């Protein structure tokens, strides 16, 4: 019985490190001194890139806003990581490429998305199984006709 208890304790001690909490840092590493030196009306794209480097993300439809994003997370074993700290620095430029504003956001921007019923809601019309299977028949031209695949 004593050997069984000792073996169980050794196995428990061997498995215990798998349950430790790990931390991860992802994205831009913020240097507060450099961020404070970026001034609206004084700096431009070239000086911002020289000071802060290339942005993590540029604006989706235009490049008038550069985003520098960083996030720290903690995770225990196989559980989902949870954000502990986040920094989003948004540098906006005017039409001439000069800095218009420097805004900062933090952990309040984190959204917790909880899927419902394993379905993603979409906008538009509902389709049935038959329309999903046969809906594209006759919509496209044959090879060599206008709208058909290239030859």
From TrEMBL:
UniProt superkingdom: Bacteria
Extent of the signal sequence: 1-20
Keyword Transit peptide: no
Domain Outer membrane protein assembly factor BamE per the UniProt entry, residue ranges: 27-101
Keyword Signal annotated: yes
Keywords: Membrane, Signal
Protein name: Outer membrane protein assembly factor BamE
Organism: Sphingoaurantiacus capsulatus
């Amino acid at each position: 019985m004593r050997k069984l208890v000792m073996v169980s304790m050794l196995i428990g001690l061997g498995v215990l490190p798998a349950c430790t909490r790990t931390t991860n840092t992802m994205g831009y590493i913020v240097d507060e001194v450099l961020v404070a030196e970026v001034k609206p009306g004084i700096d431009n794209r070239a000086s911002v890139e020289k000071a802060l480097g290339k942005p993590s993300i540029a604006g989706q439809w235009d490049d008038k806003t550069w985003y520098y994003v960083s996030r720290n997370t903690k995770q225990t074993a196989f559980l989902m990581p949870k954000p502990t700290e986040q920094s989003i620095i948004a540098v906006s430029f005017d039409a001439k490429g000069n800095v218009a504003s420097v805004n900062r956001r933090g952990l309040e921007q984190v959204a917790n998305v909880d899927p419902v019923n394993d379905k993603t809601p979409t906008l538009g019309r509902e389709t049935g199984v038959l329309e999903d299977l046969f809906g594209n028949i006759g919509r496209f031209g044959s090879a060599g006709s206008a709208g058909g695949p290239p030859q």
